[in-house]
Write a structure and sequence with these properties.
alpha/beta; Rossmann fold; four-stranded antiparallel beta sheet; 13 helices; 46% helix; globular
Length: 366
Amino acid sequence: MTSTSAERVAVIGTGLIGTSIAMAAARVGCEVTGWDVEGSTLGRAAERAAIRAAPTLERAVEGADLVAVCAPIPALPGSIASALRAAPHAVVTDVGSIKGHIVDAVAAEADPTSLDRFVPGHPMGGSERSGPEHASASLVDGIVWVLTPTERSDPAAVDRLQAWVERIGARGMRMTPDRHDRLVAIVSHLPQVASTALMELAATEEADEPEILLLAAGGFRDLTRLASSNPALWSEILLTNRDEIVRALDLYTARLDALRSMVQGGRGDDVERTFDRAKRARLRLAAKPQVRAGVAVLQVQVPDKPGALAELTITMAQGGVNIEDLQIVHSPEGGRGIVHLTVAADAASDAERLLTSRAFDPIRLA
């Protein structure tokens, strides 16, 4: 390693994630070069971000301290191997959502002597949208960026990558590739499957009940948001991580079967306990780590007009109440929306008082 920092960064693949990473790197002063197999995608990324477009992968990584390979899963192993070969002093990472498969494929394709510089990674951020036009440096702000070093990864390369990841705004977390694949199957891949299955069910039922989607309220919209994700991308992810996905689906199906039995058997207390456990777990998820010991959720109806949300947040700021999380559910009827406002539990009374003083009508949900 000839450098201890990543001042020259190359991004291979300039879609949503690649361009967002490039923008985050540029804002902290890194010189960013990019390449994409699709020239039009690279052009749009260069227009949006401070990326110097390169004509080839090899030219893009020339002289780089760090290379982030953000290609689709099938193209990752070959692109990583090429980057390792063309940038002999760079730490090379990737953003693939499956790690075990990629690690094995890279080991089979790359020069074994270069594998000490390969540190697999997975930034846990993204969107159901795609393309560089939707990219933003804020996409990496505060996200967990998983690093899954192999037994061949140089510890210095891992440290160097983690320092850079945290420098651009993310939180580095290390784990083994196998553990990563098992955990993301539950918290990332399974939600996509559930969202898609629910949306497909409603669409199928619409054939006989054309009004069904008109009845879809905020809960349905929230749960099916992921169903608008890229179909080809998710087909690749699910099939590549098939063993862990099947395991996660089996666990989820068992939970659904158990809840079905409770409902069918009229076991109201068991149903309520199940919902209560899930609610308490969700409240812990809704807040930043330092306030997970206690949060409150307030439901606030707001008019659908310019400045309404700003008035709510300014009210909180002026009263010294920090907003830990905020979600907006738009009403299908239009004209209004519902804001779910999460604050620290000991600030809930102040939040209710402040909102009431500005003619909002908060309802405490938890």
